[in-house]
Prior knowledge:
Jelly Rolls, Arc Repressor Mutant, subunit A, 11 strands, cAMP-binding protein, WH-like_DNA-bd_sf, WH_DNA-bd_sf, DNA binding, transcription regulation
Amino acid sequence: xxxxxxxxxxxxxxxxxxxxxxxxxxxxxxxxxxxxxxxxxxxxxxxxxxxxxxxxxxxxxxxxxxxxxxxxxxxxxxxxxxxxxxxxxxxxxxxxxxxxxxxxxxxxxxxxxxxxxxxxxxxxxxxxxxxxxxxxxxxxxxxxxxxxxxxxxxxxxxxxxxxxxxxxxxxxxxxxxxxxxxxxxxxxxxxxxxxxxxxxxxxxxxxxxxxxxxxxxxxxxxxxxxxxxxxxxxxxxxxxx
Length: 241
């Protein structure tokens, strides 16, 4: 199923590089590769809820988040969604399909209005033909995904539910945090079901932890928005384990 590709917009090269340089992976690319990526890529605007691709779709490109966010998830046979991660500005995705030419492994849906840098599969192949070293960098990008997956698996095995939730909230605050007079507001709409699937627990357990932490004055959670008011207390929950 072909998904909408978004409206093409323009950013200056300076604006584009300022966002992409927040990725340490991108900063490790040789200058000639960076220049070619900028030359070949397009920038597309997606509206909240737009699907970039579904699990099983043909892999049509490599993407970088420039603004907004992308939710990576999959649906079970019962229609239940399992959220794996949220991608912040500077994050790249789609490398698996570019390496093995197979179908997409998950759904990817934008959260809020989102700008993506898009390299079509043809453009990626052009880069690989011109500069075979790009295979190495795609492999390194994939390694980051694998390491992140191992970290999540270790957390699920070794950390308590409270520690896992606190660690994920701090991670989201670092990626999407917006200054607030009472702390740091996570700039994403987060359902308790989403948080439950991310850390492998139940919505009821998430609700209890959030209510407890709100009573302690560590957070304020209302209408899918979470304000971090005491990040040090949350960090201590997983640093102590």
